[in-house]
Amino acid sequence: MLTGRTHTAGVIGSPIRHSLSPVMFNAAFVAAGMDWAYLAFEVGEGKAVGAMEAMRTLGLEGVSVTMPHKGAVLPALDTVSEDAALLGAVNCVTRRGGSLHGDNTDGPGFLDALRIDEGIEIESHACVVVGAGGAGRAVARALAQAGARVTIVNRSAPAAERAALLAGNSARVGGFADLAEASLVVNATPLGMGLGSDPGGRLEPLPFDVTLLAPGQVVFDLVYHPAPTPLLVAATAQGLRSVPGVGMLVHQAAHAFRHWTGEEPPLVAMRLAASTVLSERGAG
Length: 284
Ligand code: NAP
Fold this sequence. Notes:
Elements: E1 7-13, H1 21-31, E2 36-42, H2 48-58, E3 62-65, E4 79-80, H3 82-87, E5 92-96, E6 99-103, H4 106-117, E7 126-130, H5 134-145, E8 149-153, H6 157-167, E9 171-173, E10 184-187, E11 218-221, H7 230-237, E12 241-244, H8 246-261, H9 267-281
Parallel strand pairs: 1-2, 1-3, 4-6, 7-8, 7-10, 8-9, 10-11, 11-12
Antiparallel strand pairs: 3-5, 5-6
The structure holds NADP nicotinamide-adenine-dinucleotide phosphate.
NADP nicotinamide-adenine-dinucleotide phosphate binds at residues 106, 131-136, 154-156, 159, 188-191, 193, 204, 222-224, 245, 248-249, 252.
């Protein structure tokens, strides 16, 4: 039962009503027997700083940050992790007494999905990240920090160069010809997302020509809806190992849970909650 003592957390973004975070976090709090509640707040563009002030005033313990506010919250925070500062993107804000601290949990969440869910250690392997937006930059940097050799392939060259710079020495900009040499291929573009809601087929379903993939590769799609995505359907049909984005979604939230509560998150409950909602939503 929610009481006057219940700890509160939430997510800010726009649009936000489709977010899986409330379902995942509330399932986690119930499974852990914790007196916490998590809500979704529709916060329009230009209102991120005000939302952070509200977090301070209302005493929210933690706030997840999603589009379009991941960069805009930065000036409102007292401290920021090195990764979040370099990436220019915060997806998790933690209240520490009277001050607010920002982290980016996308990279650690991605690596945990590889290591914990798939048992894959990526050190010294060649990886191609297709896409160089907020998620692509975080994934490329995390892979490079884990010791992988990273190639970034992106539609626009300046974004690819910025991502390679952020990832560090082992990263470079490449092209689709590099796909064949990679152990791991990551889709960090939105292509394939929510195709069921695009019956006219205006969206391109695949981020690259799947005949460029090679035997033995692992294909990781950050897109998690529909499940499976067109890319993962095609990869599986070619006998490749495919990793859906829901694992990263769960693990990035698990890192936020640790930041806010100091406790280990109930991963099974979080994954079950996210997967149940995704399967209820179907292909749309
Ligand atoms: P973003 O910042 O908007 O970046 C999108 C990237 O995709 C850019 O590199 C963009 O290229 C490229 N792109 C977009 N449309 C394209 C097209 N038609 N053809 C070729 N390239 C295209 O988005 P984001 O935040 O990085 O998110 C990317 C995807 O990852 C989204 O689907 C998001 O839902 C998903 N995601 C999943 C998780 C998870 O936990 N599983 C976490 C974060 C994000 P340009 O640079 O040329 O514009």
